[in-house]
Amino acid sequence: MSKMTQETSGGNAACYILELQKVCKSFGLVQANKNIDLQIQPGTIHGIIGENGAGKSTLMNILYGLHRADSGRMFIDGAPTRIKSSADALLLGIGMVHQHFMLIPRFTVLENVMLGSEGGALLKLGRAATIAKLKELGQTFDMEVDPDLLVSDLNVGMRQRVEILKALKGGAKILILDEPTGVLTPQEATQLFDILNKLRAKGVTILLITHKLAEIMAITDNVSIMRGGEMVGHRKTSETNPQELAELMVGRKVLLNVEKPEAKPMDVALTVNNLGCFSSRGHKILDNLSFEVRAGEILGIAGVSGNGQTPLMEILSGMRKPDEGSFEILGKKITPENEVTPNIMRENFIGHIPEDRHKHGLILSFEAYENMVLGFHNSNLTGTKKTLDRNYMLEHCNARMEEYDIRPRNSKLLASSFSGGNQQKIVVARELYKNPKLLIVGEPTRGVDVGAIEFIHKQLIALRDRGCAIILVSVELDEIMGLSDRILVMNKGQEVETIPGEDANAQKLGLMMAGISQGAKN
Amino acid sequence: MSVRKPLPRWADLILLPFINLCAAFFVCGIVVWIIGENPWNALIVMIKGAFIYPGSLGYTLYYTTNFIFTGLAVATAFHANLFNIGGEGQAYVGSLGILLATALFAPYLPGIFVILLCIVCSALMGAAWALIPGYLQAKRGSHVVITTIMFNFLASALMVWLLAGPLIQIGQQSPQSDLIPKNAHLPSAETFFGWFGIDVASSPLNLSFLVALIALFVFWVLIWKTRLGYEIRAVGKNQDAANYAGINVSRTIIITMTISGAFAGLLAINEVMGVQHRAILNFTAGYGFTGIAVALMGRNHPIGIFFASLLFGALFQGGAELDFEFKSITRDMVLLIQGMIILFSGALAYMFNPALSRILTRVLKGGEHDD
């Protein structure tokens, strides 16, 4: 039976390790995947690129058996296959490394890798087998990990390695990696790519899902581009370029690097003096930090996430009290003794685009027009009546949606119904409306599609040129380097070094982010 | 975890609750059938007992009044993501406000002022009783579920002591207070319609029903039309974002609990000023807890709460009729029906969602083809 199909599907089929034909999947009225065709050659790294909501994850979940396709056919090694569950996928040699690791932090590496193949009621046999397997894999692919370490003690790069080992242990010939570099430093990403290259050399086929063009260009052999649930193109990586890929992803011309005129710094808007604060457990998470930002310049703050950027932004926006030191915003001095609230900061023309729009920036179950006044609900943005003026708020929201091209143009839609880029635009529109004099921006383009990134970057530059001081915190080095006039690198709550924007490159910043100062060049 | 397109608003707000309700009644019908009675007859008896027999509508609406107040109390707290299960105690203590107000003002003021003052005082006492759990939640992190339920017991103990001690009617053996003065009585529906020459059957229904309707409106304005309501909902939906927006979260929690308690406290005006004309032991009779189901079923919206209250009022009244008509069915059947309704419209609220969504998708898609 399978042989017949193999023959009828054409001689070509056999040379693809994985082939999809006309795969469709819809959720209710939404069609997440439309007639997807995909052909993957064995032993290659195949990139799948697309904006958020383009249907990449749905497609991968179909491959991994987490969703079932409504229609379409799938072939593995030319044989027609149906994958009904992740167990089926594993049996067929498909492994997946999720964007958010599926590891148990309080278990050792060994215990985590063993999960799902414990080998009976007593762990002894399974443990011995897993140790042997780990050793073998570690030697073959040059990625050894001490099996007795607790996962919670490993850094992010090592945890990812454990995830990959977990997938390989099951005998995966096809490895799906979902946005694998999102949490890595540039150095860790390079190490990951080394591993992927070795895997490819040993004949493992890799499916790399990402929205980062640079990664596609750096490591893949072939790339498929998705937009709006459809495959819009397949390219050989060597025959394409980032510009073409970006255009395919967005469906129009985009500027990858926003033009940035020379900064004209003016008066000091913010001075930070020996600022420090402690976590709830008493760890010092911000340590003796001092810097200043001038009106009309962008200070980029680079660092691996979790190195003090979050508390810094929280303190500057009034959400958290500093424990030590002081800062002076637009001539207003704030010490640990002062009463600070986000309200006071807003009244002083300080805008804040929080790094996590789902946690802080938006109330997802509020409608767009209600989110457009979040933090300003006691100002005239909600009308001048005693009660909330709904019509006024709707008009205000409609105007902002027009100005910032927020889609769909429906002020009454829940914030959760917008795509990541449009959600972020709502936050940006709200925070820029009152023309802040100091803007604190965290991860302005995290989970935002290429088109919206370009737009948001342009807005930030325009705001700077209107004389606003901007602090930009981002883990995306491209973003930091593309926008910042000066770059401050943080590590463990301390400043490593501050360098001019034009002197920065990924290599240098990467080393500084690891805490190694390039002092000589200062 | 799959992403499903949400149901259209009308289906979510009307169709789905209706289907859930039907499912609950269907299961109860099976139970009635197993007992050996005809479910259809039982349903007819209940409907007649709740709406048709003389005076029955009055009883139904009297229960409805209580459920509106406690339902609003729970719903207010729900909007701030707080679970106030202390409506029982807050209503109980609310009666003290009435007794206090009548003692202070009844001898000197005309009826209308006394009544207004009594209403305000019952709300204030309820509010005060909820203020403490609210404060403890906001400032000390003591979970409001635990504290409000403990405050129910405290209220109960306090009232037993007061009604059997300092407040007991002189020369009485049963624990109940003195009758409140006549000018603090809320006119019953019979009296009220009598003024216009309309004859209605005697029932405990009284003017507090109007107060309940006003409370529904006040609630709607508060939650959706005021800046305070915006803050309450913001705190309820996303505390981190509320904090980011400069909303004082702990202050909002305290205020919300206070308002919630005030709604519950108002229940006392129905019982004390409208029906019993005195505070008696356990007059709250579980209405505070049923309020949770009412708020749940009414989706924390005034219109929903009104209909849910009406439904539960009809169940209470019609259920009594069941007991009367059928030898094998006792009043406990009402508890079963209530339980089923809570199960289907609360715990299993979205059980029919996928199926309904699929059917609607097909129907709507079909519609598109016709165009």
Count interface residues per chain for the largest interface. A-B, 34 and 28 residues
The CATH topology annotation of the domain at 268-360 and 438-513 in chain A reads as: Rossmann fold
Order of helices and strands of chain B: HHHHHHHHHHHHHHHH
* Residues in helices of chain B, as a percent range: over 70%
CATH architecture of chain B: Orthogonal Bundle
Q: Which blocks of ≥5 consecutive residues of chain A have pLDDT under 50?
A: 1-13
> How helix-rich are the residues of chain A, as a percent range?
25-40%
What brief labels describe this structure?
heterodimer; A: 522 residues; alpha/beta; Rossmann fold; six-stranded mixed beta sheet; 33% helix; disordered N terminus; B: 371 residues; mainly alpha; ABC transporter involved in vitamin B12 uptake, BtuC; 16 helices; disordered C terminus
Account of the protein in words:
The complex is a heterodimer of chains A (522) and B (371). By secondary structure, chain A is of the alpha/beta class. Chain A is 33% helix and 24% strand. Chain A contains 18 helices and 20 strands. Chain A has helices at 2-8, 56-63, 86-91, 109-114, 123-141, 156-169, 186-201, 213-219, 242-250, 309-316, 342-347, 357-361, 368-371, 390-403, 420-433, 450-465, 477-483, 506-513; strands spanning 18-27, 30-40, 45-50, 71-76, 79-81, 94-97, 174-178, 205-210, 222-227, 230-236, 268-278, 284-294, 298-302, 324-329, 332-334, 350-353, 438-442, 469-473, 486-491, 494-500. In chain A, helix 15 (420-433) runs parallel beside helix 16 (450-465). Chain A is globular, with a radius of gyration of 25 Å. The N and C termini of chain A lie far apart (71 Å). Chain B is an all-alpha fold and 371 residues long. Chain B has one domain (9-354): ABC transporter involved in vitamin B12 uptake, BtuC. In chain B, 74% of the residues lie in helices and 0% in strands. The longest helix of chain B has 30 residues, at 111-140. At the A-B interface, helix 11 and helix 12 of A face helix 8, helix 9, helix 10 and helix 16 of B.
